[in-house]
(Fe-S)-binding protein
Amino acid sequence: MRVALQVTCVNDAMFPDTGKAVVRLLRRLGVDVEFPAAQTCCAQPMVNTGYFDEAVPVVRNFVDAFAGYDAVVTPSGSCAGSVRHQHALVAERSGDAALKTAVAETAPKTYELTEFIVDVLGVTDVGAYFPHRVTYHPTCHSLRMLGVGDRPQRLLEAVRGIQLVDLPQAEECCGFGGTFALKNADTSVAMGADKARHVRDTGAEVLVAGDNSCLMHIGGMLSRQRAGVRVMHLAEILASTEGTEAEPGGPAVGERAESAKKGGRG
């Protein structure tokens, strides 16, 4: 099986450790994963803001970059949702028959990471080890657009040493929503504050999710509140093994985002 990693824009620019963790994890599971260098954006920002025509060349580049692979795996429910549901809308609007055909081939074989592990590989115990108190935030697109269900929790429950605690009001949006956070900043902040409060109530050391965009938003809140809670992408926990486990004591995603904005190292 030829598998390609779609790392996503935000991970490529700010959180490369997530992409590296996906590669380590999949290779440990016997998957030969490749990184097509031609990949760029999935086109979600353009589609979400109504720029369907501008999204056409971006979608075309996506299907060209990932042509010929048996599966495309991405550590983002948001980007997987865009490929599976939005690309067809862009291709239909373009009137380009070749693009519609290419999208119809690429979209169904694009998987969010936990979908690929559980549904395609048939694995729920990936051999991970992470001895920390953890709570999981299910991101909106993974829940509502992809329907990943309990796949992330099943993978986390099998991690040795983990203490997984329920997050109150888990299915409520964190308030990020991409451009929503810019256009509706006050509402976004209020929603993020609610989510951060629920995270603190769990007493967890680590908040985990499948999208770094959401973790960046919640992590920024927790960092400014000096909550002592770190945020980590699910892939980094699943890639951890005894003796090489990822430590939650490094910079939080929110802190790395602030550092990047100031020109520091991410």
Remarks:
- The two ends are 33 Å apart (CA to CA).
- Confidence is low (pLDDT under 50) at residues 249-266.
- Residues 120 and 151 are 12 Å apart (CA to CA).
